[in-house]
Amino acid sequence: MSSQKIRGVKGTRDVLPTDTYVKDDDPWIRIGHLHLIERAARELFPLYGYREARTPILERTELFVRGIGEVTDIVGKEMYTFEDHGDKVSMRPENTASLVRAYVEHNVNQQEPETKWWYLGPMFRRERQQRGRYRQFTQIGIEAFGSPGPRIDAEQIEMLDRWLRSLGIPFEMHLNTLGDSACRPKYREALQAYLRSRSADLCEDCRKRTETNPIRVLDCKNPKCQEVAAGAPKMADFLCDACRGHFDQLQNSLKALGVGFIIDSRLVRGLDYYTRTAYEAIATSGLGAQSTVAGGGRYDGLVRELGGPDIPGIGFAAGVERMALLLAQQGKEAATKPALFIAPLGDAEAARADQLAQQLRAAGIAAEVGFRKANPGNQLKRADALGAKYALVLGDSELKTGRANLKELKTGVQQEVSLDELVQKLSGDR
Ligand code: HAM
Is 127 in the pocket of ligand 1 (CB under 6 A)? Predict the structure, then answer.
């Protein structure tokens, strides 16, 4: 058997509770960063009525082909797909299609007229790896079914705004409308005609996109394509009255809620299911090229497209690693640090230390004990490294008298305490 090291798969990353090394210039994301983000979502989203839903990583490939669109990069090039005894299955590249599938499969609309779900989990896209772009990444997202009006669009954008703000993420909210089946086809035609007339100035990909998915040319990163896009016809000039009304009301609602936004006519999203509202939170610093922290929009035709009733939907998903990179740069993370580190000097003391730690933990207080035979100085160093608030050395005389010195590590201040009253003493300190 070979004893060579086995490395992780390209585009995936380990998230550990510890700093190890800086890779490709990325600050190292620790699990505490992810926890901070998740905890904020778990607390905030239910305040808006969202309940958690979990769907499988594996879905039938057809779900994404029909849901996201065959000509998108995601479905065309980036899915991990394989045959499973005759079934073609894919690892989900996103969760909206899966949630719609579950919503339709379980006839949820028959139980409730409006549904609000949120989710968290890994997604998979075979993209070129770079900072903030991985082949396995985590999304936290929401989907709301059954509300056609623009007020829920505003509510979602306000919630996203609040969530990102609560974490201290620097961003701008970009907003656009993509029209619907009444007005977009005319826009698509006009755009296509324009792009064909400028095809010599487009990159190879965009020349193809002109025929298959012309709207995607608008967000190509190639500077020459961007120049062409700047002169392209705008969706805003083609909107039908209903779409125009929806977009105007959405802006009014956002203003009434005090949410700042930027109208961005080049915001088109990379998935085909969107209608009307599209929005993205874009980091204003710290992420480089992959600066879109969260993106979403309305998909009023998707439930029907996937075999369900004619029910509108809207949602967003945020890239947790991108958010974590920003928190890592700011040095923020969630971590449970021990309130007390107990350093026993011998075997009898170790047994007592273990009991004390057990009592503290039973009372909900984080406690650590020294497991290695080390002198008190080294044990205190370990306590410091763990970020413990207090340390207590347990030697022979402490065992005999039942009293010990509780040392606050930051200040060095010591106070004598009774071992029997430790739980009580530290409870007040939490
Ligand atoms: P998306 O724009 O494809 O939308 O992805 C949402 C977010 O996931 C992105 O803004 C980004 O932060 C993160 N993300 C995407 N790809 C990667 C990657 N390769 N590495 C790291 N992070 C990534 C959706 O997925 C839609 N399902 C959102 C939605 C929900 N629309 C309606 N409801």
Answer: yes
Name the region of 121 (left: φ>0; alpha: ψ -120 to 50; beta: rest).
left
Distance 134 CA to ligand 1 centre (A): 11
- Ranges of beta strands (E only) in 125-239 are 136-145, 171-177
Which amino acid, one-letter code, is at 278?
A: A
- pLDDT, tens digit (0-9, with 9 covering 90-100), for 5-31: 999 999 998 888 876 655 556 677 889
Cα distances (angstroms) measured from residue 35 to each of 32, 41, 317, 323: 5, 10, 17, 11
* Ligand 1 pocket check for 64: Cβ under 6 Å: no
Q: Tell me the per-residue pLDDT of 166-211, one tens digit each, with 9 for 90 and over.
A: 999 999 999 999 999 999 999 999 999 999 999 999 999 999 999 9
Rounded CA separation 233/219 (Å) = 14
Atom index in ligand 1 nearest the CA of residue 293 equals 12
Which residues are within 8 A (CB) of 128 and not within 5 positions of it... i.e. 6 or more apart? Answer: none
How many other C-beta atoms lie within 10 A of the C-beta of residue 77?
Answer: 10
Question: Which atom of ligand 1 sits closest to the CA of residue 318?
Answer: 7
Structure tokens at 277: 């509202």
Which neighbouring-strand residues pair with 319?
A: 139
Contact 316, 143 (CB under 8 A): no
* Protein residue closest via CA to atom 22 of ligand 1: 319
HSE at residue 323, side-chain half, CA atoms within 13 A, is 31
